[in-house]
Design goal:
Blueprint (H helix, E strand, L loop, with lengths): L1 E5 L20 E2 L2 E2 H11 L4 E6 L3 H9 L13 E6 L6 H13 L3 E6 L2 E3 L3 H15 L3 E6 L8 E6 L4 E8 L4 E9 L14 H11 L3 E5 L4 E3 L3 H16 L5 H10 E5 L2 E4 L9
Parallel strand pairs: 1-4, 1-6, 4-5, 8-12
Antiparallel strand pairs: 2-3, 6-11, 7-13, 8-11, 9-10, 14-15
Amino acid sequence: MNAMLMFAGLGTRLRPFTDLEPKPLLPILGQPTAQFAVDALTRAGVETIVANIHHLPERARLGLAAMDLGGHADARDARIVLSDETAELLGSGGGLRLARPQLGEGAFYLLNADVLCDIDLAALARAHARNRAAFGARITLAIHPRSPEGAGYREIFHDGSRVTALGSKTSGRPFFIGAAVIESSALDVFPAVGASEMVPLLLEPAVRDGRAGVHACDGIWHDIGSVDLWRRAHLALIDAIETRRLPLAWERRILADNRRVGTRMWVSRRAPRRLDV
């Protein structure tokens, strides 16, 4: 399977930082946020990752070219190809339609580049295959059982295998984590040119037709959509690494770039030693 890495967002709530870097390149403990998504895709055996770019396109090109594509022993010879939305930001639907020739036929992964999540994408693909065989699923959403407190995420109602309804934004309820498997034939619903959105044109009709599946997963998930959420993601990962609750692959990446100087105090390995306490 190939993959669509959603990379093109403006990151307006993270200004002024996103005036300098695209949101998915903002660092988490020294690593670009998107690197964790790329790791998940290469771990799942994805060979072609299509990343759409719009905001600060030259910085996006450089950052994507610098991604480590061999961070896992079972990673294949993966490559990142660009879907250029520099002239116009096409939205979640239009971006997929533009990238369709690069995504190929059959099912593909969809993954947001600006969230941290330790999902097993291969398990998501298996769930979609079961849903496709059982009820002709066109899309299968990865959902987490509890959306974060203090931030609104649209509730996903489901019966364990199928999405039954889309609710309003709330906290502490099942929500879509930004990872899915989609049939490429489903992209025909989007206009051939111009911006469009995935939820009203693909997801909502699939729910009404009983052809939207779910895959429940429970693990680490962090949004970095605002400065406060970005800060909280750092603190949560520091706590997880100090209590040995971090996925091993994430731990290796973080320890390669950082060193501990005190309780819940970490600095870059490039920082001067006088910071040690």
